[in-house]
Amino acid sequence: MQRTILLAKIHNCTLTGANINYVGSISIDEVLLDKAGILPYEQVQVVNNANGQRFITYTIPAPANSGVIELNGAAARLGVTGDRLIIMTYGQFTPEELKDYSPTVVIVDEKNRPLEVRHYDDLLSRV
């Protein structure tokens, strides 16, 4: 049996823009993607702390060190500049794979600069 488990998240980032005319997705500063281990075009769940919206889209890398977190396409209607977001990705794991696994969490400041990378080492010890 496989279980769906958090792979990584970018915690409490700030939405920097919304572009309704773009094809779709969420643009994320490439440095944040790298630190979280989230791939370009990978499916992510986005939670908007300001309005409670939760939605699924995919990532597109924004220029490194730009601080860009931008909703594109239809998702642009789900947030406004300044909203605080949590961006998460998940993976399928077997019980054996979970024994040495720990999700990655990237903590950012108000300008989406990475402050800290954490690993939830004890999160799955209760599974």
UniProtKB/TrEMBL annotation:
Post-translational events: Is synthesized initially as an inactive proenzyme, which is activated by self-cleavage at a specific serine bond to produce a beta-subunit with a hydroxyl group at its C-terminus and an alpha-subunit with a pyruvoyl group at its N-terminus.
Classification lineage: Bacteria, Bacillati, Cyanobacteriota, Cyanophyceae, Nostocales
Name of the protein: Aspartate 1-decarboxylase
Pathway: Cofactor biosynthesis; (R)-pantothenate biosynthesis; beta-alanine from L-aspartate: step 1/1
Matches recorded under Gene3D superfamilies: 2.40.40.20
UniProt cross-references to Pfam families, sorted A to Z: Asp_decarbox
Role according to the record: Catalyzes the pyruvoyl-dependent decarboxylation of aspartate to produce beta-alanine.
Top EC category: lyase
